[in-house]
Amino acid sequence: MGRPGKVKGFIDSVIGKAIVVGIEVFARKSNVSLEDSLAELKELSHAAGIETVYTISQRKNRIEAGTYLGSGKIEEIKALAARYGADILLVDDELSGIQIRNLESILDMEIIDRTSLILDIFANRAKSKEGKLQVELARLRYEKPRIVGGSTQLSKQAGGIGSRGLGEKKLELDRRTIDKRIRDVERSIEALKKQREVQKSKRKKSHLQTVALIGYTNAGKSTLMNTFLRVNNPLKSKHESPVADMLFATLDPFHRKVKLKDNLEFILTDTVGFVNKLPHTLVDAFMSTLEEVKDADLLLYVVDVSNEEYEHQLKVTKNVVKELGAQEIPYIIVQNKKDRLNSKELLEITDPLEMTVPISALTGDGLDHLISEIEGKIMKDYKVVDLIIPFESGSMANYILENTKVVEHKYLDDGLHVRAYLNGHDINRYNLFLV
């Protein structure tokens, strides 16, 4: 049994019961607690259609090279699997090919590490051709080092490259086959990137400013996007599919035009959410989906203010923006899920030197304040101008009334007298009518 739309041959079974296990190594520093990491892994498993029935956490000096877990913990998992009917072991780390093979042999369970789980979710959620290729590239890079003496995560997958019980010559052939496919995929991605640049240029020609949502995958970005569309585009949003409210609902950048009550328009972009312990093989794919951020006029750092890792997640968000070379773009910190904190708790974690707006994307509380701040940031490139548009230029007068922020207007004998906020493009377009 598999999920609708599942990529054939990636993870053998997606629907099943899983035991979740994670190890905290004393000498290994991490900004994320083991408990939070395991909680996120369970959310990921839910997104993949896997039911988690039991969670095991362990703190120890080192990870076992051959089996990841010690013999005692393995025996415990055997007993738990029998008790709960679990057929999957979800591991909160990236495993080697040998570790996967040994655990499968001992436990007679499917072993899915954090990386392969995320790759599977990415594979099922990617919609664009480039997104699918980026995931395939990440998968190939993940699988290549896991071709191990006759048995490999890759070789046991229907539709995958290779098969069980092959000799070294065949394994080397598998590696060369993967290398060739990697090169082919990389070339295809480069070609699609050029097409994406053309699409960006077309959006820029609309002369609308772009506001991009950025942050962790469970911070509420997609909920905020849907709330914006519902509140500001009520009629249009009825005919548009909402952004799904789930982990990695957005892999490919998602664009929608938002029109505020005073006719101010901008393009709102939702981007892929961050995740803790992002697999190394997915970094390139992840960053490529965030390229749109560099072209935004305003960034909204959406952070779950109720999360204990709030400060860490905000720091990571800023670091990613810096890695993208977008740190000079104006931003607003959107403290989402304010309804889960009282005013004192909110005040304690708010930096008075930062532009922060507490909201609840779910209820819409604080949205008016956020819209006001967005307006203020966007309007800095607009100027108040006075125009007299003659009656024979009725279509141009209608454009001003319907698509710009109008301060006042009146009809006199010589045409429409209007005072409005215009951007540089519209000022040039209406140059003949300037007073």
TrEMBL record:
- Carries keyword Plastid? no
Principal place of residence: cytoplasm
Q: Which InterPro entries match?
A: G_HFLX_dom, GTP-bd, GTP-bd_M, GTPase_HflX, GTPase_HflX_N, GTPase_HflX_N_sf, P-loop_NTPase
Pfam short name (any one)? GTP-bdg_M
Alphabetically list the UniProt keywords. Answer: Coiled coil, Cytoplasm, GTP-binding, Magnesium, Metal-binding, Nucleotide-binding
**Domain Hflx-type G residue range list:** 209-382
What Gene3D superfamilies does the entry give?
6.10.250.2860, GTPase HflX, N-terminal domain, P-loop containing nucleotide triphosphate hydrolases
Q: Which residues form a coiled coil?
A: 175-202
4Fe-4S listed as a keyword: no
Compartments in which it is found: Cytoplasm
Which residue positions does the secretion signal occupy?
none
Q: How does it assemble?
A: Monomer. Associates with the 50S ribosomal subunit.
Homology family: Belongs to the TRAFAC class OBG-HflX-like GTPase superfamily. HflX GTPase family.
The function of this protein is: GTPase that associates with the 50S ribosomal subunit and may have a role during protein synthesis or ribosome biogenesis.
NCBIfam families attached to this UniProt entry: GTP_HflX (TIGR03156)
This chain's protein is named GTPase HflX
Tell me what organism the protein belongs to. Psychrilyobacter piezotolerans
Q: Which gene encodes it?
A: hflX
